[in-house]
Design brief:
about 375 residues, alpha/beta, five-stranded parallel β-sheet, globular, binds threonylcarbamoyladenylate, binds magnesium ion
């Protein structure tokens, strides 16, 4: 079924018009409708977290598996106490330092506070306060906790522009607030906090080093170790003892962030060896009759011959790589590329989140040279 999607472009309008647009979008959320909005990480697809029918609409619009719970977004600290049971000092310090900002905390849920569809039946709820004026204004005006996954079709790269949301969800959702490009470019860091221990369930906008500046005991979830390259393992990931363990963050088990073409990730300490392997894979795909692409960084872009070579930020500035990553992945789809070889980057800082997303986009096709 196609529905009429309303657009509000609020980047270049005066304050009064912006206020009117925010109020219209908020009214839709209060009516149980679905509205996409910008955050500092990626665009989110919002619904009133208390209304099961609205939340189920998110899963339907995205084609998202219903066992993958959603993050609840809040505009101020007062909203938090309605959502969660009392929490400890470590969680409090993390919020004080990183909110508003790209950190999601998984906390014990206050029973009945949000629809069970938000938490996928778990006893915990994931909460964050986004650092984006449009998101905060919208959530505050709606006056409800807003459940919002990334506003992409399930499995596709997350949207960092309203145009990406439109490409995936036009006619499937009620509204899109266009606040321009998002900042960080990859999703929030998701952590579970148990007493003193902080477990990273998904690397993101807040880095391990930043978390460690606030909490003494920070570790990567074992499920991340399966995807982590050697430096990440050194940073604290431990390989799971068996392969059929249950990930603590249900989202970790799904293929994600993937362009339509087959993506192969190539990593290694020698940039020359990586480049040689990538070019060989591209040449092989070309012989198989596929259109080819390479995802690399500014420093290495001149090395490759393929139908489309995309420089995704710079190895010297991985924040820029994170900012451009999802738009870069979507460019391969726009050019109808059948095979993509992607170059791994470092795991330091935000690089851990970039590598996590590239590894997921590769869906197991990771080569170390
Ligand atoms: O930056 C972000 O976090 C963006 C923007 C829109 O805020 N949102 C986002 O949501 O990335 P989503 O739904 O694409 O990812 C939510 C992640 C999933 O990996 C999910 O499994 C995990 O958070 N999650 C949600 N609730 C959880 C819970 N109670 N326990 C463990 N993991 C949870
Ligand atoms: Mg997502």
């Amino acid at each position: 079924m196609t529905i009429q999607t309303t657009y509000w472009v609020i980047g270049h309008i005066d304050e009064q018009q912006r206020e009117r647009a925010i109020q219209e979008a908020a009214a839709m959320l209060r009516e149980g409708k679905l509205v996409a909005f910008p955050t500092e990480t990626v665009y989110g697809l919002g619904a009133d977290a208390r209304r099961t029918e609205a939340v189920e609409g998110i899963f339907a619009a995205k084609g998202r598996p219903s066992d993958n719970p959603l993050i609840v977004h809040i505009a101020d600290a007062a909203q938090l106490d309605e959502l969660v049971l009392p929490y400890g000092d470590t969680a409090r310090r993390l919020m004080a330092r990183f909110w508003p900002g790209p950190l999601t905390l998984v906390l014990p849920a206050r029973p009945g506070a949000v629809s069970p569809s938000v938490t996928a039946g778990l006893a915990t709820v994931a909460v964050r306060m986004p650092a984006h004026p449009d998101a905060i204004a919208l959530i505050a005006a709606a006056g409800c906790p807003v459940a919002a996954p990334s506003a992409n079709r399930s499995g596709r790269p997350s949207p960092t522009l309203a145009a990406h949301v439109r490409a995936d969800l036009d006619g499937r959702i009620d509204g899109i607030v266009d606040g321009g490009p998002t900042g960080v470019g990859v999703e929030s860091t998701v952590v579970a906090v148990d007493g003193e221990r902080v477990t990273v369930l998904r690397p993101g906008g807040v880095t391990l080093a930043e978390l460690r500046s606030i909490a003494a005991d920070v570790a990567l979830d074992p499920a991340l170790a399966a995807q982590a390259s050697a430096p990440a393992a050194a940073a604290g990931a431990v390989a799971p003892a068996n392969s059929d363990f249950i990930p603590r963050s249900p989202g970790m088990k799904y293929a994600h962030y993937a362009p339509r073409g087959e993506l192969q990730l190539v990593c290694g300490a020698s940039a020359e060896a990586v480049a040689a392997r990538i070019q060989a894979a591209v040449d092989d795909a070309k012989r198989r009759g596929l259109t080819t692409g390479v995802l690399t960084y500014a420093e290495h872009a001149a090395r490759y011959r393929a139908d489309l070579v995309v420089a995704c930020g710079s190895l010297a500035d991985l924040a820029a790589a994170a900012h451009e990553l999802y738009a870069a992945l979507r460019r391969f789809d726009d050019a109808d590329i059948g095979f993509i070889a992607a170059e791994g980057c470092g795991d330091e800082g935000i690089g851990l989140a970039v590598m996590n997303r590239l590894t997921k986009a590769a869906a197991g096709r990771v080569t170390y040279v």
